[in-house]
């Protein structure tokens, strides 16, 4: 299957310091969730910054839908079909859910298309439909994250980049947020996900990629990475779960 996002042999870093990414590659196919795993400081967020156009790579290529978009800035990356949902909360609490979601569509001029996108995100995220007229600040943390997801899908992106979507959420809200990530995937979006809670994220993802020392240490189906005892000890905070036990999300 052709990838919506390809990062090829990326070398990237900050200022004059040694590069953080030293020949990193990943493929994110349409309708799949790819989870990046790795120790603190390995460069997971740096990968998202490169993919989202916030950090220009020193070397390597970024392809979106097969088109070479290397070196483009964040707006051009959004126009190319890459939507970034940042770490932490970025809803405007004193604005309504509707106003927050429509912020994601400020580039859409076509009214008919706009209503189609609104109908679509309301269908994918029921909470957004239910609380459309409410002030976003009145929603729970998990619900606010869904408003951010809805905003990111307004431009009908090919790829969504999610940086730690469960940060600051309790386990129940985390479960809901992962359910919504699956709904994005099922709607055909390619998802590149970074999560502190690596085991939980891999349980949700289709594919996993372990990043260490600026390169891919190992990649493959998420279920295989989860079942690997050595990876479990090194990167996932302990031994794998009992085989066949799926988490409730
Ligand atoms: N804006 C920046 N300026 C300089 N160095 C940075 C900057 N952002 C990150 N770094 C450095 O780049 C390296 C990789 O950071 P990055 O945030 O990508 O790692 P990470 O794998 O996402 O880490 P974590 O799991 O702790 O969030 C770290 O050594 C970090 O100190």
TrEMBL record:
Residues 5-238 form the ABC transporter domain. It holds the Pfam family ABC_tran. One of its GO terms (biological process) is L-amino acid transport. Keywords: Amino-acid transport, ATP-binding, Nucleotide-binding, Transport. The keyword Lipid metabolism does not apply. InterPro entries: AAA+_ATPase, ABC_transporter-like_ATP-bd, BCAA_Transport_ATP-bd_LivF, P-loop_NTPase. The keyword Transport applies. One of its GO terms (molecular function) is ATP hydrolysis activity. Belongs to the ABC transporter superfamily. This is Putative ABC transporter ATP-binding protein.
